[in-house]
Amino acid sequence: MKLLTKEIERKLIENGDTSTQEDPIVIVKYFIGSWTWLGIEYDPKDRIFFGAVNGHEFELGSFSLDELQGVKNKLGLGVERDMYFTPKPLSEVKKELGVIK
Q1: Distance from C-alpha of 24 to C-alpha of 54, rounded to nearest angstrom
Q2: Euclidean distance between the first and the last CA atom of the chain, given in angstroms as a whole number
Q3: pLDDT truncated to tens, each residue of the chain (101 aa)?
Q4: CA atoms of 101 and 74, how far apart (whole Å)
Q5: DSSP 76
Q6: Cα separation of 88 and 28, whole Å?
Q7: Which of 81, 40, 48, 46 is nearest to 64 (CA)?
Q8: Burial class (CB in 10 A: 0-12, 13-18, 19+), 79
């Protein structure tokens, strides 16, 4: 499965700089096991996302497409894109993940 399609990349780039937004829109969701990555912005030149990671704890920050593509679990399976995810505000995704009530 392709982690970043041209359509998703376009939506991430259109999202622009969200640093002044109180509740930015999450465009794409990736997962493996209990770990989740949420893409809000994307820099195609450096292949870096800005978004959130929910693993040992929930945190906002940057993550790399190359790193996502290199992650494998003990069975050799890689990170997957949630193909049924629809863009929505970060606060809604945090509720779905149980980060906030």
Answers
A1: 16
A2: 32
A3: 899 999 999 999 999 899 999 999 999 999 999 999 999 999 999 999 999 999 999 999 999 999 999 999 999 999 999 999 999 999 999 999 998 76
A4: 32
A5: S
A6: 9
A7: 48
A8: buried
Residue 42 pairs in a beta bridge with: 49
**41 token code pair:** 């912005």
Token duo for residue 71: 């992650």
Both structure tokens of 54: 């929910």
CA distance 57 to 52: 10
Residue pointed to by tokens 């990671």: 53
Q: What pTM did the predictor assign?
A: 0.93
H-only helix segments in 16-53: none
Phi-psi sector, 33: left (phi>0), alpha (psi -120 to 50), beta: left
- Measured CA to CA, the distance from residue 33 to residue 27 in angstroms comes to 20
Residue closest to 90 by CA, chosen among 40, 33, 36, 19 = 40
